[in-house]
Amino acid sequence: MDILGISCYFHxxxxxxxxxxxxxxxxxxxxxxxxxxxxAFPQHAIDFCLRVGSxxxxxxxxxxxxxxxxxxxxxxxxxxxxxFPRSHRVFREAMVTWLTDKLWIKHLIQRQLxxxxxxxxxxxxxxxHAASAFFCSPFEEAAILTVDGVGEWxxxxxxxxxxxxxxxxKEIRFPHSVGLxxxxxxxxxxxxxxxxxxxxxxxxxFGTPRYIDKVYKLIRIDRDGGFELNMDYFSFHCSTEQTFxxxxxxLFGPPRDPQAHFFTPSTGYPSYFGEKPPNFGELGKxxxxxxxxxxxxxxVTEEIxxxxxxxxxxxxxLKRLCMAGGVALNSVANGRILRETPFEELxxxxxxxxxxxxxxxxxxxxxxxxxxxxxxxxxxxYWGEEHSAGEIEKxxxxxxxxxxxxxxxxKLIERVVDGLQAxxxxxxxxxxxxxxxxxxxxxxxxxxxxxxxxxxxxNVKIKxxxxxxxxxxxxxxxxxxxxxxxxxxxxxxxxRFMLYVVDVREDKRHVIPAITHVDGTGRLQTVHKxxxxxxxxxxxxFGQATGVPVVLNTSFNLKGEPIVxxxxxxxxxxxxxxxxxxxxxxxxxxxxxxxC
Length: 596
Ligand SMILES: [Fe+2]
Hints:
Elements: E1 2-7, E2 14-19, E3 22-28, H1 30-33, H2 43-53, E4 62-65, H3 69-82, H4 88-100, H5 105-113, E5 120-122, H6 125-134, E6 141-147, E7 154-162, E8 165-173, H7 178-188, H8 197-203, H9 212-218, E9 219-221, E10 227-229, H10 246-252, H11 280-316, E11 320-324, H12 331-340, E12 345-347, H13 357-369, H14 389-398, E13 404-405, H15 409-421, E14 426-429, E15 443-447, H16 454-463, E16 472-476, H17 480-483, H18 493-496, E17 502-503, E18 521-522, E19 525-527, H19 533-546, E20 550-555, H20 567-575, E21 581-584, E22 587-590
The structure holds fe (ii) ion.
Fe (ii) ion (FE2) binds next to helix 6.
């Protein structure tokens, strides 16, 4: 039974391929087209999935789309009619894009893949989210929470998963949405919506949540986590460009300039921003105001999610919780849900946003439509494309790139560990690329976490990122508790996928300063020997050499670009950055000292 799941046309288009209920391949379209958050029909990701499955599209048993386009169109139509004529542009754009393209997804799939209509199924947006979490989890029974911007009408749902069934018990509907509330602040704070949400989360620890009262003017929360937005402050329901309106600005003041550097009196002015401006004291104070706003919206979001999770526990009485939807990528909130609610175990799969809907749609069809039993759980995130040694060598030879081949894995790892200890920043490409937005040791940039200056060094060499975007630690799963406050760290799935922020142990903060956030926390990735043996061996060897089994891991990309897929993209990124060493499988490329 071969099933292809597809999600597209909102954000992060993706495809996933299931064979007899087991995942074979999954990838976001952006990794192939190099367009960040590409939401177009994921033809490249589909072709990749079919290649891995050695199957022609026409031979698929089913193709499942992750939501119902007609219901979504109905929502767009009704909500823009309610706010007409303010919404005339939304209305016009919706007409143009939906009537020409998005509405006819069945015909598009038929045309592009040569699949007859009888084999094309549709799930619902939040059911796809729920299925992507629960059916990928190892749990036989669990409560399910889905929270995002908006699907068809639903913006959040509570359900129960049991065996091959998912029952959605409650939902919150558009325009009342935690995701859209958070996105309004993302835009206000000068970041791109659907892209900069994690920057808001990163900015929050630099601030004090002193504007919580103001945020509560925008939203009323019930004790059970139900909520209602005060639409007087928003315009996302009637505008294609603005998510908030003048009344919002009266409350919070002018929005932050997207081009402005972020630093506060506590961070100082980072050297990599260049020369310090004369009014830097005043700019620092302004930024502090924005950091306080970020802290306030983050705190309120955490409160909402905690209430929802507490209510989910009360309603279901279950010990396990599966979460999905873009808001489930809020790793700070996830950490609090684990610590502060009665749930003992959480599952969030690595592509919890809309990309993950592709897997959810396929699993929904397999279990809930076809009634087939479960035999899969997503233990790791390595479902993307892989490049053989032959392919890599061919590319290096063709380009006349000087390289060394290190077939002996121990020697290769020793070389990388020596490089890390010498303060080198290393590009590391191995095996299949990761599913979801995080690099988890297959398309990563690595550095030594023990050096306090490494954060700035990596920023200068690679990313030119602001100080509120902290780097993450990859730690051996079996030794994670020595460094992080996460009891039984190895058993927690979200930690595998870098989806928990927890405290770094107080006595270890000075040991790994480059990955310890300003508030003493870290967004750890636990690395398991059986799932990622080479990466595990690398960290283990680094631990043997230094006494610290932790490396700094950040995604292998430059600012604004998708994470690399191929050796060619990795090499191109390497040459455009200050990285010192590049490892492509077993091939090592070193930059001459002093060159960039
Ligand atoms: Fe969604």
